[in-house]
Structures are given as structure tokens and as C-alpha cells.
Amino acid sequence: MPDWSCGLADIFNEFLATSSIPPYDSKVHRGIWRTITLRCSLRTREIMVIVVHAPAGGGVGKRDCGTDDYSTVFESEKQRLVDMLTKDAIPTPSRDFPEGYKKEEEETSGDMKVTSIFFQEYVGLSNPPPEHPVQHIYGKTSLEERLGKCTFQISPGAFFQTNTQGAEVLYDIVVNRIKEVTTSPQDTLLVDVCCGTGTIGLTCLKEGVVGKLVGVDISEPAIADAVVNATKNGYTESATTRFVASPAEKVLPDEMKNIPKNCPVVAVVDPARDGLHGVVVRTLRSNERIQRLVYVSCNPTGTLARDAAMLCSPPTKKYPGRPFKPTLSQPVDMFPSTKHCEMVMTFDRLSVEEYEQYHDKE
Fold first, then answer.
1. Is 298 among the catalytic positions?
2. Distance between terminal CA atoms of the chain?
3. For residue 311, how many C-alpha atoms fall within 13 Å in the half-sphere facing its CB?
4. 31 and 160 part of one domain
């Protein structure tokens, strides 16, 4: 854990130890303070803090007698927490590292400070969804990160890769896979499914391997950021970039129909752990102008394997079109010291000759 996150944890521990409001107990659903999310950029020295809490009047398990109601002190405690977080630079805690441990150098020098604070009230039993509203309390309304040649705005509910240096390695692989097949980059359209804040698509534009971009994502906060990020990185023309906030299965079929027939198309998909919806798989398979598909997966042994089978299996009524074939896979260690990794798998469409040869054998 980096020093800044340990320092913030110390501040929160001090706050909770002295607060008149108790932390949330997930077993009985009483108490107020639930979780904190810390997002930071070592490159811009910015830290965003999101504090999730139950309603000040009590959680779903509150007692009828009213002893779980902290409405009268909640606002003053919120302000006290904000003051503690923003009073000074984040303190560097004392660390007891094992013998021989070599601390990694941070990318840039300078103190880390909290630059934005949000509070998020949530009455549910699990965790709030990304689109759940937040209350902006302090500082900037977003976090700024630099990745490759691009600068990105990140809102509280928007997904962004947790490892920026690892993401640069990941995106370089995607860029190279697309570059291999784009003979006319400025005329080529990239269809970016589950595009998030637009990081992959805008990186491909910046690297000059495609000339146009259509991004689709279910998260409205992420798409709002993607629109801002396009402008932030110099892409202001609607003919160059367009982002759609919707489940991909609802809009991708029509988006593909609207692409001019003479326009070269490549596709990138970067779904959540649940993988691709069946309608998305069918749409990608049935549009044979997509000769290369780059699949970025955080669940390679689960939904990537499932989706690969649907993309590469013989055509059926449900999944028509000449199938793809996997041509390259590259793991990326985005989560060091864990058993998890990201996988970039490249799929190429079977040629007519390959398909007919395979089909005749069937």
C-alpha cells in the first residue's frame, strides 16, 4: 500500500475513534459510516475521496426507538471529516517494512493532497451502483489523470484502470493489434464497446491507428467523461468521435447499420467480468466488415472463454456470419502480487477460403 493511502487511513481511523456517529454494521444494518473509496493520480498529485454512508436518520436496520438517528450531528461531523482530510498534506506514516524491502519511487515529486471529496448516501444492503448520485462537498468535481499521450477526466462513478502504468502497457498492445490491419487509418472507424471514459478509443486516435471512433457504454457518468475527454484531447468534431450511453445490446445493432458501407471497421471490446451480452456477440459476428476484433478481458478463464466459443463456433441461426479465429493472446499483469491478470485476445475473421474449407469438412 502506498504511503498516501496509509496516511489517509490513519486520518479516517482517528476520525472514527472520535466521532459521535458509529460506523455501519453490515450484519444488522445499523450505523452510518459505511465505506471510503480513494482514487488518486501520482502524475497529477490529485486524490479523490468518496465517503459512502447510510441515511443520517439510520440504516435499514434502525431501531424504532430513534436511538439510531444522528441527524442533529451529521452535518457537523461531515464538516469535521472534511477539515481533517484537507487541513494539511497527507502525513507519511511510520512503516515497518521487512528486511531487504525496496520501496518503489513515485513517478513525480511533491506532496499528495486531497483535491476532491464526495459523500454518497446509500440505503441498500450491498454497494451503490456506479450511477448512484453523489454529493460534491469539496474541491474539484473530477480527478485528472495522464495516460500515454492523453489526459483524462474521471468522475466519481466512472470506471478507470487502477494501474496507470499497467494500462499503458495494455493499451500499447491494443494499438499495435489494430495498427497491423489498418491500411488506411484516417478512414478507419473504431467501434469501442464498453468504452468507459473513452481511454482505449481516444488512445487509438491519438496514436493515429484509426481516424474515427464510436464508443458505447452503459455508464452515464463514464460517457459524460468520455465526451469531455474527447474535447480535452483535441477531438471536437462529432464526425470524429461519438459516445453513446446505453447498454450495448440495445444500441450496437443500429450503430453498426448506420456505418457507411465503404468505411473500414475494427472493433475493441472491454467488458466487465460478466462478459458480452449475446446480442453484442451476434452483432459482431454478423457484421463481416469487422475483420479484426480485440477483446480486453478481466475474466479470462470465465467469460472470455465463453465469449470466444460463441465468436469462433460454426454459424447458427442465433450467431450467424463467418466465425472468428483467435490469433494472439497476451496477458498483462495489471494487479501485481495477485493471481489476477488482464488478457488481450485478438480475433481475426475466417477468410472465405478458410471458412469454405472448414465448412466442407462439416
1. yes
2. 55
3. 31
4. no
Is the separation of the CB atoms in 269 and 296 below 8 Å?
yes
Q: Is the pTM of this model over 0.85?
A: yes
**Choosing from 263, 298, 312, 341, which is the catalytic residue?**
298
- Dump pLDDT digits (tens) for 293-343: 999 999 999 999 999 999 999 999 999 999 999 999 999 999 888 888 999
Domain residue limits at 96: 3-141
The residue among 141, 164, 193 that closes a domain is: 141
For 24-32, the CB contacts below 8 A with 24+ separation are 24/53, 24/54, 24/59, 26/125, 28/61, 29/54, 29/59, 29/60, 29/61, 29/62, 29/125, 30/58, 30/59, 30/61, 30/62, 30/63, 30/68, 31/59, 31/68, 32/56, 32/58, 32/59, 32/70, 32/74
For residue 237, is it left (φ>0), alpha (ψ between -120 and 50) or beta?
beta
Q: Which residues pair with 37 in a beta bridge?
A: 50
Cell 481533517, located at residue: 84
Q: What is the pLDDT of residues 197-228, one digit of tens each?
A: 999 999 999 999 999 999 999 999 899 999 99
Identity of residue 44: T
Supply 101's cell numbers. Answer: 524491502
Domains of the chain: total:
2
Q: Which residues contact 152 (CB under 8 A, 6 or more apart)?
A: 144, 145, 146, 160, 197, 198, 199, 202, 225, 229, 232
Q: Does residue 41 sit in the same domain as residue 158?
A: no
Distance between CA atoms of 336 and 353, rounded to whole angstroms? 43
In terms of domains, do 294 and 212 share one?
A: yes
Is residue 119 within 8 A of residue 51, CB to CB? The reply is yes
> Which residues are part of a known binding site for S-adenosyl-L-methionine?
161, 217, 270
Whether residues 137 and 259 fall in one domain: no
